[in-house]
Amino acid sequence: MRFPLAPTAKIVRHIVTNKLKGNRKFAMVLQLEPLHTCNLTCTGCGRIREYSTSMKDMVPLEQCLAAADECDAPMISVCGGEPLIYPKIEELVAGLHEQGRMVYICTNGVFMRRKMREYMAACYTPAMEEALRQLVSEELVNEKEATTIRLSDAIARQKIVIKPSKWHYWNVHVDGLEFTHDLIVEREGVFKECILAIKMAKILGYQVATNTTVYRETDVQELEDMFKFLSSLGVDGHTISPGYDYDAAKKDMVKRLGKDPADFFITRDMTRAKFKDIQRWGDMFTIFGTPGYLEFLAGKRELACSAWAVPTYNVRGWKAPCYVMTEAHHPTYQDMLSKVNWDKFGVDAKGCGRDSRCENCMMHSGFEPSAALSNSPRDSWVNFKYNFGSRPPPYPASAELTRTAYNGDTIGKGHLAEAKAAVSREFSGSKSAFARNGNAIPHATGHDHPSETETSGGGCSTGPANDQLADLKAKIAAAKMTEIQPK
Ligand code: SF4
């Protein structure tokens, strides 16, 4: 099975019960944002911009649990911000488990190893020694940390911790291989840390998923290589969703990076081109989701938006109408359900946006539930077969695959290293330092590059290098790294 049996049974029961009760709109996944504080500033993240005035606010623990209880979604995606910064994250996870819910912690991975060491210190017994020795030998835990775990004191032992469970997934944000991922999260070394955390989690018996956002510049072959690599590490499943030009992120792209948002986010046609292989990936890798949504992404069918099924709750309340668009925050889920005119949003039968802001959206939080909740017998059967069928085997690990994955910071080609090299080279017009596997990174400037093949290969002599250079200089400025600004 792609997903553990008990949580799957709970989700099926939830759908059937609501349908039998005649509920037309109900929550499937709660996107719970207990805070928006984050240790990273990912390109394309709307949260750190839209909620910039409430970055330090947090939803009290009891309020988080009450929100989950009220909407009664069987799955809770604890996101943010970086949820591992939330001071009561362990209590939150424990409380959600007590309510019988599946919990995903959507994390950038940077604090995961610390949380897992805390788990080991709290629960250490000699039976854990074999795993601990493996962690040390693979340099996932150092000797000093291992000693601290073995000699854990009463305080460490009393701490509530996040333990491995079939009701829990670490859901690690990975947007590409090392070079791309570090570029998107705007910090070198993050990819490497994510991978260390994933390896440690698998040794300790946690379930691990990854989530990936696909942008205009995302290279499809790189995505496949990323899935191969993650699968070879024993990752249990992957979610993948197209990026989208919602207002907060759009404003930031324009202001901070001086970029036209249309050059960064992805349109519906582009999404379909990027996701044309998604069904094949669904056979090769444990892609989470419904086959209907994968068909939708590949352009083989239309779906309506069901944003009400994946509500977002944060410091301001229930965010309506959806994860990316904000018209209001409501005090309760029921208030949001009853007051939002849902017919105003989403797309019509031809896939045209009812609201212009919905025009290019194909996000999983809007459309995935439509496929999962479909009444069509064909959809029900295909969903059943996909999720209850056997899980694709892990992709074979190899030195070549590892070399492909570590294509940035590890080989001295991190994005800041590239920036330094390119800045010192100035606008030479020669082959750019911003190249991936010898090809300039695909992008758009004054040209329209509708397909992947047309955007790779470095055909534009003046565009790609200069635009990538401008982006990186802006990022460097944002990071206050004035010492590597051009003279
Ligand atoms: S289509 Fe749905 S999920 Fe997408 S922006 Fe519109 S309301 Fe939000």
Per-chain topology:
Blueprint: H1 5-20, E1 29-32, H2 47-50, H3 61-71, E2 75-78, H4 89-98, E3 102-107, H5 112-123, H6 129-137, H7 143-150, H8 154-158, E4 168-173, H9 178-185, H10 190-204, E5 207-214, H11 220-232, E6 237-242, H12 247-257, H13 268-274, H14 278-284, H15 291-297, E7 312-314, E8 317-321, E9 326-330, H16 333-339, H17 364-372, H18 377-388, H19 399-405, H20 415-425, E10 435-436, E11 439-440, H21 452-455, H22 463-478
Parallel strand pairs: 1-2, 1-7, 2-3, 3-4, 4-5, 5-6
Antiparallel strand pairs: 7-8, 8-9, 10-11
The site of iron/sulfur cluster (SF4) has 14 residues, from helix 17.
Structure description:
- This protein has 487 residues and is an alpha/beta fold.
- It folds into two domains: 5-388, TIM Barrel, CATH 3.20.20.70; 416-478, no CATH class.
- It is built from 22 helices and eleven strands.
- The protein has helices spanning 5-20, 47-50, 61-71, 89-98, 112-123, 129-137, 143-150, 154-158, 178-185, 190-204, 220-232, 247-257, 268-274, 278-284, 291-297, 333-339, 364-372, 377-388, 399-405, 415-425, 452-455, 463-478; strands spanning 29-32, 75-78, 102-107, 168-173, 207-214, 237-242, 312-314, 317-321, 326-330, 435-436, 439-440.
- Strands 6-5-4-3-2-1-7-8-9 form a nine-stranded mixed sheet. It has a two-stranded antiparallel ribbon with strand order 10-11.
- Residues 426-469 and 479-487 have low confidence and may be disordered.
- Bound molecules: iron/sulfur cluster.
- Iron/sulfur cluster (SF4) binds at residues 305, 307, 321-322, 324-325, 345-346, 357-358, 361, 363, 365-366.
